[in-house]
Write a structure and sequence with these properties.
This protein is an alpha+beta fold. The chain contains eleven helices and ten strands. The protein folds into two domains: 84 residues; 228 residues, Bira Bifunctional Protein, Domain 2 (BirA Bifunctional Protein, domain 2, 2-Layer Sandwich). The strands form two sheets. The chain has a seven-stranded mixed sheet, with helices on both faces. A three-stranded antiparallel sheet has the order 2-4-3. Strand 3 and strand 4 form a beta hairpin. The protein is rod-shaped and about 125 Å long. The chain binds 3,4-dihydroxyphenylalanine (DAH). The site of 3,4-dihydroxyphenylalanine has 11 residues, from strand 9 and strand 10.
Length: 337
């Protein structure tokens, strides 16, 4: 009588071998050793006749089941290896990765943020107001006389009825003063609109930053100190300011402030039109009429205000010679900042 084969042990041995098969060659070896016509299981099946009759059926069934099980395991292993191979062919680990394009902040946003940061360091808070304003906030409360030329259709975009697009950020002064009691120290960046011909130097929409400080004892020297401090931080320590007398309805006295030309340092060049100076802002001591309009007592409260064009500051800082570049959204321009 032949030995009774231990099918469980053989199956476990075959399964372990299959686990280790990493390529087609190993799989082929497995197949012929276990599943082929001369494989272990075939031999057992063929040897059934030598077994005791009562064992034949039991071993036969077990051997056939083991064969099916190993065949299924073999198919699965073969499929898995083929899939790995397909993945391996598609993946080249030496390829450089794909970079995800990143957006950036618009140069005007960056410049505005920097201005805000500098004034924040001098104790200014940020406020804003509506771009659609009324005649009262944009003109009347700021002491523009009824026949002032700035109210003319030439400059102002009128919307409907009493409404207009604000021509400057100065109305934020009125809106803040109405809500707050002194001391107030505010910076108000935002858009302004003027009905002007579009060219390299002016646009129908632009950005301004308004600053103002009202308290018991504010002087012109405070205004100068704040503006000089700002210019040094924004443009560099070599920047010099020049204060020229000027006029605005909402300040008295009023001044326009020039900065020494950043290109020639004041010697005279094309940028400064050979004057050595570039105008950067308007400013002054807040007119008593403005304080009266918001019920501040001009006998007790004084203040300064200034307003500057953000595009203008950005153009000077980065030597940009055409304001239209800011609004054309040409990435070749924007991506430089
Ligand atoms: N609002 C003025 C303009 O748009 C700029 C300005 C001048 C603002 C003097 C001020 C100021 O606050 O005091 O031309």
């Amino acid at each position: 009588m032949a030995d009774v084969p231990d099918i469980d042990r053989l199956t476990a041995q075959a399964a372990a071998e299959l686990e280790r098969a990493e390529d087609q060659q190993a799989l082929d070896g497995f197949k012929s050793r276990w599943l082929g016509r001369k494989g272990e299981l075939s031999l057992i099946l063929r040897g059934l006749k030598d077994l005791a009759p009562e064992q034949r059926r039991e071993i036969g069934v077990a051997a056939n089941q083991a064969r099916e099980k190993l065949q299924a395991a073999y198919d699965q292993r073969k499929g898995a290896l083929e899939q790995n191979k397909a993945v391996a062919v598609d993946l080249d680990y030496t390829l450089p990765g794909r970079t995800v394009p990143r957006g950036g902040l618009h140069v005007l946003t960056q410049v505005t943020d920097e201005i805000v940061r500098i004034f924040y360091g001098m104790g200014f808070e940020v406020a804003d107001g509506p771009e659609i304003e009324t005649d009262y906030y944009n003109f009347t409360a700021l002491n523009f006389p009824p026949d002032h030329p700035a109210r003319d259709m030439q400059d102002t975009f009128f919307v409907e009825g009493d409404y207009l697009l604000r021509t400057h950020t100065s109305p934020v002064q009125i809106r803040v003063f109405e809500k707050r009691r002194p001391p107030v120290r505010i910076l108000a960046p935002g858009r302004s609109y003027r009905n002007e011909a579009i060219n390299a130097r002016s646009y129908c929409m632009f950005h301004q930053v308004e600053g103002f400080y009202a308290a018991a004892d504010v002087s012109f020297a405070d205004l100068k100190g704040v503006l000089v401090g700002f210019a040094e931080q924004f443009f560099g320590a070599e920047a010099k300011l020049r204060f020229r007398p000027s006029f605005f309805p909402f300040t008295e006295p009023s001044t326009e402030v020039d900065i020494s030309c950043l290109l020639c340092g004041g010697k005279g060049c094309r940028l400064c039109k050979y004057e050595g100076w570039l105008e950067i802002l308007g400013a002054g001591m807040i007119d008593p009429e403005v304080f009266r309009a918001v019920n501040y007592d001009p006998e007790r409260i004084s203040g300064f205000a200034f307003g500057m064009g953000i595009e203008r500051l950005a153009m000077m800082k980065y030597r940009i010679d055409d304001i239209r570049l800011f609004f054309e959204n040409d990435l070749r321009f924007l991506a430089q900042f």
